[in-house]
């Protein structure tokens, strides 16, 4: 694991955006995997800035997102579909037909998951996947004790994750209790991973993912086995490692 420690959230965001931008410059047909949550918001803002300066072209880029709540419509402001449009897709020239997001209102979950996996394979595979990490060590929505062999599937969210994510909703009762997420195997199949973490609240999860044993109890620990992972951590997130 290549661990980069930076001063603060802004520096983390700038570093991450420049890595994504160089990926697109080097391969304009890149397949990018995006994450949601608070952590990558700054990265997406920086990426939009770089795009507006005219340095990158997303017209041939293909995107996949890690996860989506179930069941929630893509028009719902709490959905990850809405988030991605709001923070990134509405501001860059990525083509709608190249954007792939899980449908949180699908009727047939199994079909949705299988076709998502097939689309990733047909695209040639994800070149660069952005990841955050949950306070309990989850990646995507693969909660502790997730199957390391799992592909895209329906997950039941942990109480801790529901509480942590309730800050985006009016009340904890409004937070969906399920989600559809790429599995650990899907994530481990990407070519390059960029994991971002900021703040003291992530230090424990980062410590266990980087220094702890590789165990389904800490889904992020599996990343120790991936051949190309870069972690960009601010000082607070890194302080235990
Ligand atoms: C969420 C998402 C993850 C995200 C993580 C951390 O629940 N499913 O993809 O990386 O939890 O979120 P945040 O960046 O808001 O701390």
From TrEMBL:
- Tell me the organism: Acidilutibacter cellobiosedens
Q: Does the keyword Lipid metabolism apply?
A: no
Gene Ontology cellular-component terms for this entry are: cytoplasm
Recorded metabolic or biological pathway in which this protein acts: Amino-sugar metabolism; N-acetylneuraminate degradation; D-fructose 6-phosphate from N-acetylneuraminate: step 5/5
Picking any one GO molecular function of the record gives: identical protein binding
* Keywords from the UniProt entry: Carbohydrate metabolism, Hydrolase
Could you say which protein family the record assigns here? Belongs to the glucosamine/galactosamine-6-phosphate isomerase family. NagB subfamily.
Q: What task does this protein carry out?
A: Catalyzes the reversible isomerization-deamination of glucosamine 6-phosphate (GlcN6P) to form fructose 6-phosphate (Fru6P) and ammonium ion.
Q: What is its EC number?
A: 3.5.99.6
Catalytic residues at 67, 136, 138, 143
> Which catalytic reaction applies to this protein?
alpha-D-glucosamine 6-phosphate + H2O = beta-D-fructose 6-phosphate + NH4(+)
| Name used for this protein in its record | Glucosamine-6-phosphate deaminase
Question: Alphabetically, which GO biological process terms does the record hold?
Answer: carbohydrate metabolic process; glucosamine catabolic process; N-acetylglucosamine catabolic process; N-acetylneuraminate catabolic process
The UniProt record lists the Glucosamine/galactosamine-6-phosphate isomerase domain at 19-224
